[in-house]
Amino acid sequence: MTAADPVDRLLATARGEPVDEPFRVTGVMVQYYYVCERELWFESRNLEIDRENATVVRGTRVDETAYSDKRENLNLGMISLDLLDDGRVVEVKPSSTLTEPAEMQLSYYLWYLDRVADIQRDGVLAHPRERKREPVVLTAERKDKVETAIGGIHEIVSQSSPPPAEEKPFCDSCAYHDFCWC
Amino acid sequence: MDRNYHVFSDGRLERSDDTLRLVPDDGGEKQYIPIENAEAFFLHGQIDFNTRLMSFLNDRTVALHVFGWEDYYSGSVMPKRGQTSGKTVVNQVRAYEDSQHRRQLAAAIVRGSIHNMRTNVVYYNGRDHDLDDIIEELEAAAARVDKELPVDELLGTEATARKAYYRSFNEILPSEFQLSQREYNPPPNEINSLISFGNSLVYANCVSAIRATALDPTISYLHEPGERRYSLSLDLADLFKPVLADRVLFRLVNRNQISDTDFETELGSCLLNESGRKTYTKAFEETLERTVEHPTLNRKVSYQYLMRLEAYKLKKHLLTGEEYDPFQRWW
């Protein structure tokens, strides 16, 4: 028997159906898929990141403090997302650099809600430090893109070793920097 | 985040609001210790503490290393990290069980260890000492290191090299401080006791470095797992002893900063007294804070951080299969 399509396997895992090899994709894995494939592979192995890393500390702080009175955490098994009090899904990021990865992370949440829980919601990408909010809607095009990404993620995390290190402009601020380059 | 604090007095270590306070037993002044930049506390005296302190240290990911009778390392209280990694431990064990893989890692550690011993001898060779024969012996030992050798032979090669290396101490140090022979439990003379004390500090720092990753400190490659204490820490400490402990020893003794008044000598044993330990740890901590330009990280890193990087390198090797290249002093 050939391995099932990654999207089907992910959906079966999320719905709690019996699966030979469960396949889980978290929101942050979708983000890393667009940022750095090596980081995605590390994340898939639960590799501990340097929590004292300045960027991580800043991101955690922004996430914990922004709109704290207006949102509610919703844990859905493999994903955990925040709902605003108007029902939209919000993803908080400290800055608007690397917008596409953040948009795709949010798109994945919307896709997951739609496909797993049959709930249709809109999203909002928030950059509180820049006082910016952008709406994100799950269009047909975004749905396709999410499903392509799931296939791509599956391919990377199935490898027994990570893609080789590749120097990128944001490597310096990455929590895996020293681990990657030592 | 990387300062070590050593507490030599007896007393009580406690949380006081959002910082730490040391209350000495002798009624001396209370001392406040900033926790923000602390990596670990080394307790050399008799210290009381409670669970409130433990939770606080845990939140701030600060370790406690305890030294007991005659300042032997007796254990650590480590922060529970946010994440542990079963996968890391599984891979660690797999590498141990695969005898070829284990030999390869053990050989790498011995190779790095001999290289770092040799660097010390070469440094002193030009300075009024003739150590050519010892350098030759170390090179001969290094040439025997092969990843095909069984682990006990690799251990034997390391021991032979270390024996030759320790002979250089008698040349490097003034005649009133001679090592003659490496002995411990208890150390019979001054140099042996300095080596033992220094090694225990290197060892405890390696424990901290390992615990900052999800590596299991009891699964090791050169030493037998769990043989004594945290055996993975023994593996890594071998690489760092020449760079940290031995250089501090040479410096302090040759500059007369340590003298016979810094020891307590009893029948068959010789140990550093409190003033000796203070002098030593001060110089040791200064060494940990020294920095060196790192060839691949493109920044300066402290000697202390080199131990953390070593744990990262090992973990990376175990998880990704990318080659493990042992720490070899490059400067």
UniProtKB/TrEMBL annotation, chain A:
Q: Which family does it belong to?
A: Belongs to the CRISPR-associated exonuclease Cas4 family.
Q: State the organism of origin.
A: Haloarcula salinisoli
Any GO BP annotation: defense response to virus
> Domain DUF83, which positions?
26-182
Which Gene Ontology MF annotations are present?
exonuclease activity; iron-sulfur cluster binding; metal ion binding
What is this protein identified as? CRISPR-associated exonuclease Cas4
Does the record's keyword annotation contain Transmembrane helix? no
Q: Which lineage? A: Archaea, Methanobacteriati, Methanobacteriota, Stenosarchaea group, Halobacteria
Q: Does the keyword Iron-sulfur apply?
A: yes
Q: Which gene encodes it?
A: cas4
**Regions that span the bilayer:** none
Enzyme superclass (EC):
hydrolase
From TrEMBL, chain B:
Task: Give the EC number(s) under which this enzyme is classified.
Answer: 3.1.-.-
- GO annotation terms (biological process): defense response to virus; maintenance of CRISPR repeat elements
Where are the bilayer-spanning segments?
A: none
Query: Which keywords describe this protein according to UniProt?
Result: Antiviral defense, DNA-binding, Endonuclease, Hydrolase, Magnesium, Manganese, Metal-binding, Nuclease
What class does this enzyme belong to in the EC scheme? hydrolase
Q: Which GO terms describe its molecular function?
A: DNA binding; DNA endonuclease activity; hydrolase activity; metal ion binding
Give start-end ranges for the coiled-coil region(s): none
Which cofactors? Mg(2+); Mn(2+)
Describe its assembly.
Answer: Homodimer, forms a heterotetramer with a Cas2 homodimer.
UniProt family annotation: Belongs to the CRISPR-associated endonuclease Cas1 family.
Q: Which PANTHER family match?
A: CRISPR-ASSOCIATED ENDONUCLEASE CAS1
* Name of the protein in its database record: CRISPR-associated endonuclease Cas1
Protein's gene:
cas1b
